[in-house]
Amino acid sequence: MKLKIPSKLSFFIVGFVGIVFFVLIISSINRSRLIAFTQNVVSREQVDLGLPVHFIIPKIDINSVFEYVGFTSDGVMDVPNSPTNVAWFNLGPRPGEIGSAVVAGHSGWKDGAPAVFENLYKLEIGDKLYVEDEKGRTVTFVVRKVQTYSPDSNTSDIFSSSDGKIHLNLITCAGDWDVISKNSSSRLVVFTDKEGK
């Protein structure tokens, strides 16, 4: 037995279903806008971080200032001009932003002059370091891993991450100096994560 729906009732049902469908679409648009807004707020908070100005590692007596560098003409990360400064790779995230910020410093400077990362090899898992920005805010990082790379190693994990967390990676020369190539035999990298992720 078929149920016959009066025409007025069928108009009402079709109209009601249309309204519900419309409300669901609007809700989904509003949800998308809310998600976009939330992501915008997070992005603004990230952008709101000041430029890094001071770099401190108490364990190895580092209290240094930042230089900002990009690529050299050879397509590699540049280094600081001064042996006592550190260099932030300013084509990547700022220290404290999501992703892997990278900071380079010299070790084994010519004529035995002291260099900022001379004792970087002494850092161990759990040691802390601090980055202060131009707005006076300090971000604390904790050492997760210390690793040595040969010059021909794939170093993409130093400059990028996909875990949505905040990292700061420190890099310096290590090993023996090659007078002919004017390069060190290896690189020392200290991987750190923002405290309290």
What is the element layout, followed by pairings?
Elements: H1 7-47, E1 52-57, E2 62-69, E3 86-89, E4 99-105, E5 128-133, E6 138-149, H2 156-159, E7 166-178, E8 183-194
Structural description of this entry:
The chain is α+β, with helices and mostly antiparallel strands. The chain folds into 2 domains: 1-48; 52-194, Sortase (Sortase, Chain: A, Beta Barrel). 23% of the residues lie in helices and 35% in strands. The protein has 2 helices and 8 strands. The protein has helices at residues 7-47, 156-159; strands at residues 52-57, 62-69, 86-89, 99-105, 128-133, 138-149, 166-178, 183-194. The protein has an 8-stranded mixed β-barrel with strand order 1-2-3-4-7-8-6-5. Strand 7 and strand 8 (183-194) form a beta hairpin. The chain is globular, with a radius of gyration of 27 Å. The relative contact order is 0.14. Mean pLDDT is 77; it is low at 1-6 and 8-45.
Rounded Rg? 27 Å
Count of all domains? 2
What's the order of the H and E elements?
A: HEEEEEEHEE
Largest sheet: 8 strands, mixed, barrel
Strand content: 25-35%
DSSP summary: helix tally: 2
How widely separated are the two ends?
65 Å
CATH superfamily of the largest domain: Sortase
CATH class of the largest domain: Mainly Beta
Broad shape: globular
Widest beta sheet: strand line-up: 1-2-3-4-7-8-6-5
Can you give the helix content as a percent range? 10-25%
Defining key terms:
single chain, eight-stranded mixed beta barrel, disordered N terminus, globular
Brief characterization of the structure:
This protein is of the alpha+beta class and 197 residues long. It has helices spanning 7-47, 156-159, and strands spanning 52-57, 62-69, 86-89, 99-105, 128-133, 138-149, 166-178, 183-194.
